[in-house]
Amino acid sequence: MMLEPSTPVQYVKGIGPRLAEVLAAKGIETVDDLLHYLPFRYEDRLNPRSVAELRAGEMATVIAEVRNSGLFRTRRMPIFQLTVGQGRSRLKCLWFNATYLQGRFQPGQMLALYGKVEEDRDGHLQIIQPQFEVLGDINEEGGADEAEKKAAASLEVGRIVPIYESTGQGKLTPRWFRRIIRWALENLNPDLPDPIPAAVRAHLSLVSPREALWQVHWPEAGESFTDLQSSRTPAHIRLIFDELFFIELGLELKRREQKAQTGIAFQLDAGVRDAIKKILPFHPTSAQKRVLKEIASDMQTPYPMRRLLQGDVGSGKTIIAFEAAIIAIENGYQVALMAPTEILAQQHYFSARQILEKAGYRIVLLTGSVEQDRKRLVRRHIAQGNAQLVIGTHALLQDRVEFEKLGLVIVDEQHRFGVMQRLKLMKKEGGATGRQPVPERKGAGDVQAQPGEGARRTIREVHSADAEPDVLVMTATPIPRTLALTLYGDLDVSVLDELPPGRTPIVTKAVADERAAEVWEFVRREIAARHQAYVVYPVIEENEERELKAAEQMHRQLREKIFPSLHVGLLHGRLDADAKERVMREFQQGKIEILVATTVIEVGVDVANATVMVIEHADRFGLAQLHQLRGRIGRGAAKSYCVLMHGGKVSEEGQRRLDAMVRTNDGFQIAELDLELRGPGDFFGTKQAGIPSFRVANLIRDHQLLEAAKREAAFVIAGPSAELSKEEISLALKHMRSRWALSYGLAEVG
Ligand code: ADP
Ligand code: MG
Prior knowledge:
By secondary structure, the protein is α/β, with parallel strands linked by helices. The chain has a 7-stranded parallel sheet with strand order 11-12-10-13-14-9-15, sandwiched between helices. Strands 16-21-20-17-19-18 form a 6-stranded parallel sheet, sandwiched between helices. The chain starts with 16 loop residues before the first helix and ends in a 6-residue tail after the last helix.
């Protein structure tokens, strides 16, 4: 029978309903899925290494003959030893605890072995636990007839051989996949149309899908082995591009739809520019200038802005937010600035008052713990348009706060909100104002008629303009650019990739708990030098109670026993708003010298005089979180120190995280490692819908292809041209919709 990509795998010869189930668990349901189950490596069995030439330290494929084998029992465990040979050269292979290998090898059998070559104590070469295949041994899976055995055997030597990850408790071996996938390739409908338009193919010199599939599974002898191993052959590139292109096509379409909505065309005249200049407490970095320009030009267009501002901790996002706010306020609109925690909202409120109030802007704070009467009053101010900048937590959207004339929404530390929440939030803005966008508007122009007065007049006088507010989301989680492009493919992205001048890199050390006394001594010296310190107790949500107790205990011990003559404060999420505010203020003013805190300080807290952070149980926490925490120090000119305490027994992954923290201050590097350790689905703490999982692409490895895919998607969505026919576009869109519906569960696209 002829196979179509959508044919269920159980119609592939050799796969019955039972195996189909095993494969389904692996995400392989259709022929198309099967064909995209790519080899995770290749063995060069065309030019295998000769045993005599092997060097210790290399990964090698060796084809050699079994000489002898047997099981040794040492005191600690049984070890299976196999000796293979080529002429007079010998190679030893060892497997630990491998009684199951007894009787598996017969002298004279040919083996393909793969593993890391090492030297044993006597200087002989050996491979520990190599992967192996007995060549020509087709009986493994049973059921094959003679001709098939021959054919299968011919796939195993004298060529580059694909190695698939075995699955189904090892039942589905690499050899099994080779046979099955080969058969599927041979029987695949040869006349499938290529859903990628010819012009796009030409731009990137893409090979056809059919050729790509053949070459990726059965590379020709001349193919570069390095390219194969790193997924950089033309075949790999075509398949990876396919996957990314259709994701980006969907996102591009979404973006188009957004752009079709009516937004506010803010004016940016000399008066507004002046107002911005006046508030700036320092010279902006060139990255800040560039980003503000990007934001300002979005705000000037008549479309709603949807922009993500990414900037590592301390890169100076707050001031950008304030500048954007001024543009909106000067145009007679209100601005909402939302933070993920009360403490951060409060801090923004303080800075906003310091920086913006002197310009006469009216700023209010609205958080969950503001007391009822005050809340009512504040809400009235917001509804009447008296409040121009409204700073708050989620309460701002949960309580359906009515704005008189909302023009800009700024969401700080967006990583805390999660992707889906972000979408909901954007939808809700319209709801919160209770307005529908209207096609024609002229609000901003009205304000413009009286330049410079925007801030002082009551907003109610301004002819109310009904349009979608602009949205700026800011995040300090340095989302790798690649991930940002897919996750936020429907947002425009600005990157603050420069820190304000005068920062010295933070020195980070990992230290075992038994050396705590030295650490406290060090803290004491820093405080004597008139600096301040954080001692952080990261709270894991599941054990919140216990962890809080630990933080409280720590606080008591530090205050009473270790630093009796210093001021040691305590800050955690359960304190009421007043207490939080007081503690933060005292720390800011230097009255508190050591602040014991839970992770509530993770985001945004800004006290430049704090130069030490001691993080307890640092090995238990994620990289992104550690990096966020560390970002609280190193904010002034003085040298800062981060001490990562751990119990001594650290898991391997924990150790990798600590090492990364010690090695680098670069948030982007940390984020990429984090992404590698956790995978995109976990990157934001919880698995979230809407993050595509990939069959062949790898966002870190393939970031250039992702950018190309984005570019080409924009080209296709832009519409027909001399290069691009209508039919090609609709074929691509059709394919995109079925892919989105199938793989990403996001059927609602365009
Ligand atoms: P984040 O991006 O983490 O939100 P902040 O906006 O809190 O960073 O800025 C970190 C610190 O750097 C603040 O104290 C801020 O006042 C200061 N800062 C920001 N931009 C500059 C600049 N261009 N020159 C000097 N200091 C700056
Ligand atoms: Mg911030």
